[in-house]
Amino acid sequence: MSISPIEVTIDPVLQEVVRYRLTAIADEMEHTLLRVAYSSIVKEGLDASAGIFDKDGRNIAQAAAIPIHLGCMIPAVERIVADFPPETINPGDIYILNDPYAGGTHLPDIAIIKPIFLSHELFGFAVTMSHHQEVGGKTPGSLPTDATEIFQEGLQLPPMKLVDAGQPVDQVFKILERNVRTPNVVLGDLRAQLAACKVGDEKLQELNETLPLNDLRAAIDGLIRQADILTRNRLTQMPDGKYTFTDYMDDDGVDVGQQIAITATVEIHGDSLTIDFTGTSPQVRGPFNCVPASSIAATYYVLRAVIGDDVPNNSGCYQSLTLRLPEGTIVNPHRPAPVNSRTATVRRIGDTLLGCFTQIVPDEAPAASCGQLLVMNFAGRTEDGGYFVSSELGVGGMGGRLGLDGIDAVETDATNCMNVPAETLELEAPIQVMDWSLTTDSAGPGRWRGGLGTSKTFKVLSDDIVANYRGERHTTAPWGAQGGMAAAHTSAQISRANGTVEQLRSKQMLDLHTGDELTIHLSGGGGYGDPLSRSAEDVARDARNSRVSRLIAHDVYGVVLNDDGTVSKESTLRLRSEMNTTTTGEME
Q1: What is the C-alpha to C-alpha distance for residues 207 and 216, in angstroms, rounded to an integer?
Q2: Percent of the chain scoring above 90 in pLDDT
Q3: C-alpha pair distances (Å), 385 with each of 59, 238, 559
Q4: What integer pLDDT is reported at residue 371 of this predicted model?
Q5: What's the predicted TM-score (pTM) here?
Q6: Helical (H) or strand (E) element with 284
Q7: CB of 26 closer than 8 Å to CB of 50
Q8: How far apart are CA 461 and CA 481, in angstroms?
């Protein structure tokens, strides 16, 4: 069944021009934010986002940035719209919030929301969200893996004015300055967000000079209807039914060893979609709880991933979705549950939903990725008595998919950050990067194998360094799809200067001293399809490039290699026959 397009009152060519103009404005906001930012996690790791919303809180354009931020902006703007009626909003006002239980995500993610007035009317909002390296709390960097309540995680900002009719609210800036360990960096990043919102305002004013406000609004309404129609049409091409998948997190960092279940049921009925997280574990004592804004964002990301990139990126994509987040679970906790590490849960929500869609559209959904954004903050005191905080973003591999191997060492999915260059970390902290490489055999075997994870070793050059290690997939490996195999587990260890070696749990606060070396091996992505049907020449090439070992080539892929690394074709055919599997296409 196909849904007939709704007739719109604006030229479709003009509508597309408006679509790409709005997207370009959002991208320019993002570019400004990244260029002006102070912190390495933003200017190098790109952990920031920008978007544009209309006066009703509908997302109308977003930059190519962090999907979890872009999804989380929607509840943030909805909260501003609810708390501040239009008649109370004036030109020059700017709002701020980070409270996870009042439209935010976790405390380091601060949203800046600037009302936009066009032709003397409230048109909408320019919005930015950045991860701030420090917002106070019990540990430098504000990501304590052992937090048991939100009050330990940092400064909470409910929705409030940061700028009132063009005048900064000095008290808010002073509160921020006094409650963070690195005020220059935090306030610098905040000003970068303000600058980006100013760019959005200026560019929308320029657009309004060439396009009357009524025509602009008509084009936006048309784009949202178009996104809804295209999404519903895509859903009608999927088989009706209920599809359930469960994935697991290692633990919450407090109740060590107690796995956490994320269960989702995707129900497709015609042109509508229901996603229900009934069966998911209750909220946990540790900081891996995920408030609705973040759970919604993870769900939106997966929905956008499966409906296709031809659909305009706006609120129309989600009008066909009914989402059920049971209260008191890890995907909808009660205050004051800690939430600082909710990014790991967001990634597992994404893996779980993709697991559902591997049953619905097996030719389109990939195997699981490494399943984590490894965020580490190295922190300590400076010679003048201040603090330094430097962030490290670890990257693993993507899952294999039909026709393509997974991508090596990349941070995409709902987080979509970049790794921080070794030179940046070494400049900001007394840390030396000793090794940074792809990890042999870290990818899940398959006809299309997963992408490789990375190994990285950090040497500590000073005493009294504090770091938070927030890993995942130590006990629950990234799963394969359509006969593909799981990837290797993540692991980490500290080699102390005195010669002792400590194996790390997946979540720990670390005390580091001169000469200690921290080594982390991140998972690759899961494999897709039967490994024994992978091209033997591809396996040989992987072995020559140290992507897989000769042992895995033989024992898992059934490929026998000569001493020079080439394929022994007869021996390979015989071995694969003995392994009792179809071998079509493997000997090209």
Answers
A1: 9
A2: 88
A3: 44, 60, 60
A4: 87
A5: 0.94
A6: none
A7: yes
A8: 43
